[in-house]
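Reply to dn_fold:

You asked what the input looked like. This is it:
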Amino acid sequence: MIERSIKLEKHIKKGRTLILYGARRTGKTTLIDNYVADNQAKRKIVKYNGDNLSVQTNFSVNDINLLSQYVDGYDLLVIDEAQNIDNIGKSLKILNDERKNLAVLVSGSSSFELKGQVGEPLVGRKTTLFLYPFSAYEVIDSIKDEPAIVAWKRLQEQFLIYGLYPDSITANNNNERSQFLAEMVDSLLLKDILAFQEVRASDVLLKLLRLLAFQVGGEVSMEELGKTLGISKNTVNRYLDLLEQAFIIFRLNGFSRNLRSEINKKSKYYFYDVGVRNAIINNFNALDMRNDIGQLWENFVVVERKKQLSYSGKKRNQYFWRTWEKQEIDLVEEKDGKLFVFEAKWNPNKESQLPKQWIQEYGDTQFSVINKDNFYDYFLSEGTTNE
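and this is what came back:
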């Protein structure tokens, strides 16, 4: 079994709600079921599934007398797929207020549905965690019959082509992996979006995703996307927002403090999983047959860094940096006024230096170049969080 880095126990507290977000098939239900199984003897747990119609009815009422019959006698309430329950936020608020000895754990696959319901009602009463697909560290750490560095070298190509979704990692062969990823794109990932606010233009969404997939690592122009797709800039922004809230993509904004030459009005978009990105463009070719290895590696490094920071509890603002003179840095992190700079270079023989304009403006900041050989040191060796 692959142990997840995210730990539920320290976040489950009486009188509060823990919300576990994440895309479909990232392992939320498995994580919750394992927690329930491990703690069933220590605490009184009741678990419901929000896909069940009776559960949707029972927990959509905002009456403590009605809600109490489903939770009394327990100290932990668990609701999987809670986004399917109308008014769930108000119901959870009532339980938090009226049952001070009851802890609540809920999961949701789409933030635009669950956040909209629980955001305001649970202000001050909730903790939010995000579950990504497996991290490279989680997978490598689970392998006990070979050294971690050997496992990384053996699996790095698979990770970059087929990603790190649990179903992809546990598949028997690459054909199964590509079939799973195609299914994810066609029937699961877009399901949340197309069902939300009566979005019907599935062809436009897929075209938008394809454009983003080909532009990974490059700044995105809303105007250009709109012209290419034949839709307005506002519609582009709306669709991008929906894709973010469905946990398919995320954005980095441009970093700027002073220089007029710095680009700060554009964004870069990355995929939470590079396997999904490859499925969108239907390209599962081996690395030596690809011309996008630089883009793949940059996306992979950026999202693995997000996982690393998230699971270690470290808070840093993340950006990219680029000037109109085309000097650029892949990833800039900011914490307490300090800056940390990262470049993703697949080839360990390819040199990289801090841009002169960056040094002139921000000094000789901590600079890390992450390639396929030293990735292990940054992400896979024991306890690495790269302070």
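Residues 160 and 274 are 6 Å apart (CA to CA).
Hope that clears it up.
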